[in-house]
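B., you asked whether I could sanity-check this one before it goes into the benchmark set. Here's the sequence:
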Amino acid sequence: MNHDRSPRPRVAATIVLAGAIALAGCETMDERQRGTAQGAAIGAVAGAVIGKATGGKAGTGAVAGAAVGAIAGNLWSKRMQDKQRAMEQATQGTGIEVARTEDNQLKVNVPSDISFAVGRADLQPGLRPVLDQFAQGLDATTVVRIVGHTDSTGSDAINDPLSLERARTVSNYLQDRGVPASRLEIAGRGSREPVADNTTPEGRAQNRRVEIFLREPAA
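And here's what the prediction gave me:
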C-alpha cells in the first residue's frame, strides 16, 4: 500500500491562488498594488519549485516565495513610481513624454523641437534645464541608457553617426552634472526605428528624437 501523499495538489492550489491574486482586479489596481500581486504569483511558483527540488515541502515553499515576491514586487514598483513621478514633474509642459515600459524601465522621449536642431548634435537651450533636473533626480544606482534617432532624410552614412553623437552629447552633459560615466550607456539607431510617417514633416519631426531609459542594475 502506498502511503506517499504527494503535496502536488496543495502546490497547484497555491500557485493558482497566487495567479488569481495577480490577475484579479488588475484593472483597478495601481502600479504598486499590481507589482505586489504579480511578485507574489512569481514568488509562489519559484518557491514551490525550489522547495520540491530541495526535498522540502513544496506547498510551504510556495507560500514563503509568495511573501518574498510580494515584498520585492512592492518595492520595485514604488521605486519606479517615484522616479516616474519625479520625471513627469521635471518635464511638465515641455512636450517630453515619460512612460513605463513592459520590462519595468522608465522611458523618457525627448522630441526634436526641444532636443536638437535638424542635422545638429548640440543641445538646444530648452533641454538643458530639463537634463539638470533629470540628473538631480537620479539615485546612486540607476542605470541610464540614451538612444539617439533621426528621420529618414539623408543616408545611413550621415544618420547613424549623427544619432550616436546626439546620444553622446546628452551623456556628456549628464556627466558634467555629476552622473558617473559607468552608469551611462549610449546608442545610435539612425533612421531604423521610426515612430511616425517619414513622408510628412510632422512625422519626420517625431522621428528626430532622443530616448532615455532608466533601469535598476542587474542583481
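One thing to flag: The chain is about 50% helix and 15% strand. Otherwise nothing jumped out at me.
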